[in-house]
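FAQ: What does the model actually see?

It sees only this:
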Amino acid sequence: MKYMLILAEAEEDFAERLKDEAAFEAYMAPWMKYTQDLQEAGVLLGGEPLEQSDKGTCVRVRDGKRLVEDGPFIDSKEQLGGFYLIDVPNLDEAIKWAEQCPAAKTGVVEVRPLWEIPS
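And it is asked to produce this:
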């Protein structure tokens, strides 16, 4: 079964890490290990980090008119930092992988199953 691990952390923490190269490298080390562990277990289907939320653009269509706004749509203390797409037998296995994710220690990892649409 396919699950998306949706990663969210405090925006201030992320911004602070970007200011110092050594802090950023120390932050990234467990992420590299985690990604390697997912690959070696054969469960990783994909994943990518996201830019900071202030680089986002929101698009809505209301009454047939396109509305485009800069910045994040969600008013939150946390930002979406990225995702992993994994294929594991069940929710329990997905949760085990989520708990090993570095974001679980400082933010939150949402485990969401993909909706499998019949063809």
